[in-house]
Amino acid sequence: MSAIRSEISGKDVTDFYAENATVPVYEWTTDPPEELSALDKVLLISDDQRMLAERILQPMMYAFTALAIPLAVLNVVIFSRKEMRCASGTYVIALNVGQLFYVVTVTVDDVWAKASDNKYKRYSWCLYNYYLNVYSGLLVAKRGSYVILCLASVERLYAVIRPLHVKNFLLSKRPLLCVLVVYAVSAVWHVYFLARSRLVMGVNPQTGETLCTFPRTDLYLKTKEVNGAIGLAAKIVLSYISLALQLLLNVLTVWALRRHNMAARHVQSSANEEAKRQQERQLTITLLGASFCFLVFSLPNVFYNVFATVIPEFSLGKKYSNLFLLLGRYTYNLTVLGCGVDFFCYLGLSSKFRNTLRQMFLGGKKRSGIQESKLQTVASDVSQIQSNSF
């Protein structure tokens, strides 16, 4: 085991895994052997300290997941109701579905791996991890959700700047089509990941165990530079540029909203027009609040990935490697928590969301309230008739 770790030290784990098809990459889930004590002296955080911290961070992840999943499902259900249907609601549903799929796949992968004595012995787990967890969840769904949020912000910005023409705007007119196109493009763009490796059963020469390995494909070896460029472009465009653009769109929407409100003060409008304007304004503010929370909880994980790419000390076996692993767990916990926080943004900023939620769970009380109002109307009519008779 120590020989494996010394070979991986300072090297990309995926590259090592591909070059040594019969040698699995182990995760340190048990106490490190004594021969690694010299390496622990170099590490900023020892393996024992990292494992102690993970015993705290992992239950937090399960708690956040238990909170985020039902709240995300509730968001989808509420925005799917007839009274909440709109272009922005379609983007909210797509965003929650993408984030929900990402969280569920990662959680199932983590629980499955912990339940196995050695996860690399299970071909089914490796198949799930490679195709569903990493490709479908981490790459396609997660990065696609960043673009979906950008589309929602563009649609809201256009609605504030040109409210009379928003119905003819493509993002408002065909929101479902735009969502499907985004996820389809994300799936096609990330095919490069599937072309890198293949799943085979190999034999560990040290133990003789049959384990899953991910050797590089011939296609990848022939087009390594092109494949790497496509992967880097996907990371930059779908993650970094999308989130930076999202931040810029939020600033522009706030500026346009303030300008629109100042102009509306000098224009006389009917009660219906004023009510509709207030409704659109509340929807824009609600999505602004939700997107701001999304950025706050997602950016740490993005910065973590940037640091992991540009800082060599984060490589496995280097001084900050254990700190790097802990930061990954911590930033992922924030991402999971962010999937549930947006529910409270909708609840606090949107009266229509609150009313729809109340109707879902208090439908019977709503009907009794209507009956009570009818009785009050009948009583007032009776009292009016009696007063007229006198």
Automatic annotation (TrEMBL):
Domain G-protein coupled receptors family 1 profile: residue ranges: 69-346
Compartment annotation: Membrane
Pfam families hit by this protein: 7tm_1
Matching SUPFAM superfamilies: Family A G protein-coupled receptor-like
Transmembrane segments: 60-79, 91-108, 128-154, 175-195, 237-257, 285-310, 330-349
Keywords of this entry: Membrane, Transmembrane, Transmembrane helix
GO CC annotations on file: membrane
Protein's UniProt name: G-protein coupled receptors family 1 profile domain-containing protein
UniProt source species: Batillaria attramentaria
Lineage: Eukaryota, Metazoa, Spiralia, Lophotrochozoa, Mollusca
